[in-house]
Amino acid sequence: MSIVSRFLIAALFLLSTAAFAAAEDWRVVKATDQAKYTVDRMNWLDLSPGDVVPNRAWVSTGPRGRVQLARGVESITFHPNTLASIATGGFFSKKTEIVQLVGALDLEIEKRSQPHTTVQTPYLAAVVKGTIFQVTVGKTKASVSVDRGLVQVTSFASGQQSNLGPRQSAIVDSKAGMTVRGQLSKPEIISVAPLVAKVPVVGTTKLAGAIEASEAKNKSSTADDKTSSSASNSGGGKGGIGNSGGNDHGNSGKSDNNSGGKGNGNSGGNGNGNSGKGDNNSGGKGKDK
């Protein structure tokens, strides 16, 4: 084989590899001004249509934020107050794992012969071959609702599993376990070995705390975002509650005093406040602890 032939083969291989890699990227189709992402959990960047979301990046939406990502025929839509990351790995057989801490995702996944996409939440895991479904994560429970296809849902703590078809759903409560529903027929629940969740409940570990703190810092920089602050107009304020989908952990509490009082933002929410501050607008004094 001549040198020219080898060069052409190598060039074609590189081009096909680059095209394949581009097809594996999640790109932004639609986004609001409260849709952001981070790769270091400290610095948050805006998402705009056409942007490529880095692999394993965390994507966050504010109280009015939405973003739709697409990869080929697949799409993932983030509803308001949602925090999740998407990781794709493997060379010959690509598999995607979505880690969803809080909020709601609408997913349309390409149908393949083998399961290739998993959604991990603090309470359940959803494994799919190809389908349209929604996953919602709250403070103490998570749910899966299927529009098309088949989704296997596993409840970690209670050791329960169910295969959901079209117009069927499952709710996994941290205490009550799994309950299922169906418009035409009710899916069956089987017993499996209990598992330890890969995803922490928001605010209970250092990982989740770091993500929450970054989320709170990111949102507090938006002038019209009030989810991480509380105001008092007649005396000393206290740390704000709520970020990352309405969790009970104030990480960036802020207090405002408009009548000469004194505000001390010390530990917003239930003791996980990290950067509270007080502001006095009429002669008072605010201090940062």
Please give a quick description of this structure:
The chain contains three helices and 18 strands. The protein has 289 residues and is mainly beta. It folds into two domains: 26-191, Jelly Rolls (Sandwich); 206-280, no CATH class.
Ordered list of secondary-structure elements with their pairings:
Elements: H1 3-23, E1 26-31, E2 35-38, E3 45-46, E4 52-53, E5 58-61, E6 67-71, E7 74-78, E8 83-89, E9 95-109, E10 117-120, E11 124-137, E12 141-155, E13 160-164, E14 168-173, E15 177-182, E16 190-191, H2 206-220, E17 254-257, H3 268-271, E18 277-280
Parallel strand pairs: 9-10, 17-18
Antiparallel strand pairs: 1-4, 1-6, 2-3, 2-5, 5-8, 6-7, 7-9, 8-9, 9-11, 10-11, 11-12, 12-13, 12-14, 13-16, 14-15
Alpha carbon gap, first and last residue: 73 Å
Number of distinct helices: 3
For the residues shown, what is the average pLDDT? 75
Which structural class matches the secondary elements? mainly beta
Number of domains: 2
- Helical percent range? 10-25%
Q: Poorly predicted ranges (pLDDT <50, ≥5 residues)? A: 6-22, 221-289
Order of helices and strands: HEEEEEEEEEEEEEEEEHEHE
**CATH class identity of the largest domain:** Mainly Beta
The CATH architecture classification of the largest domain is: Sandwich
Number of strands: 18
C-alpha-based Rg, rounded: 22 Å
CATH topology of the largest domain: Jelly Rolls
% residues in beta strands = 35-45%
Sheet of most strands: 16 strands, mixed
Overall 3D form: globular
